[in-house]
Amino acid sequence: MRPVAVLVLLMAALANAQDARLRVLIVTGRMDPSHDWRETTPVLKTILENAGRFDVTVTEDARGITTGSLARYDAVLVHYNGPRFGDEAESTIEQFVRGGKGLISLHGVSYGPFFGLELRERRWQPTSEGAWPAWPAMLGATWKPENIGHGARHVFPVKWVDREHPIARGVEASFLANDELYHRLDLRPEARVIAAAFSDLKTRGTGDEEPIIWTVACGSGRTVHTTLGHDAAALRQPGVAAAIARAAEWAATGAVRPR
Questions:
Q1: CB 147, CB 128: distance < 8 Å
Q2: Mean pLDDT, the chain, integer
Q3: Shortest CA distance to 259 belongs to which of 47, 49, 52?
Q4: Cα–Cα distance measured from residue 224 to residue 60, given in angstroms and rounded to the nearest whole number
Q5: What is the tens place of the pLDDT at every residue in 145-155?
Q6: CA angle 256-74-17, nearest 5°?
Q7: Do 73 and 101 contact (CB within 8 A), yes or no?
Q8: Tens digits of per-residue pLDDT, 218-227?
Q9: b/e for 103-118, b at 16 or more Cβ within 10 A?
């Protein structure tokens, strides 16, 4: 075969690889009373599909997840705050990520049963079941029950503080969120913060910079978490939607294509 023909074939193969659609499984089906997963799950699905890079499937039955059923996916997006998934599903997701795949999570999964907490008397309190042992490490954070909260919902700028990370590389320095600004989370040492926002005392905040998006290396895989995403209006903010799509691509592949 002539060198030119070989080059053409290689370029075609590279283009096909770059254009290959990534498969993402959204795991949902339950939320705490403050959040409506039925409203927000379709918005998340649309965000990913509109990015032009993803094939998206939604499941409302995480307990049915097995190694075989998860094998076809490149990443899992957890949009859930309800009873734990059970040992088999939890172990399967953990091994899926550690084996080289991706995990995206947001907002309401920052607390709750995965951390061994349940809502009683309008307060998050420890359960007898306990936490999903691997979840805090995969998420890269914990949240003391007495610190769970946020100030008044408002519009605020989110700054990309790690411009070298693929999720933040080549984008505007900040974007606007219209959301709850979670505060006083305890990030683990391995968490890499890539976006943050100032929690203003005027909005009943902390007066500090609070982490908004961070990543964690998990075995051979990658996890990314954002505290944004309270409702459909929050998710539809252009900068937020773009950040979620970029985060999903990075979680699935370890890179983000230039746009």
A1: no
A2: 93
A3: 52
A4: 21
A5: 999 999 999 99
A6: 55
A7: yes
A8: 999 999 999 9
A9: bbbbbbbbbbbbbbbb
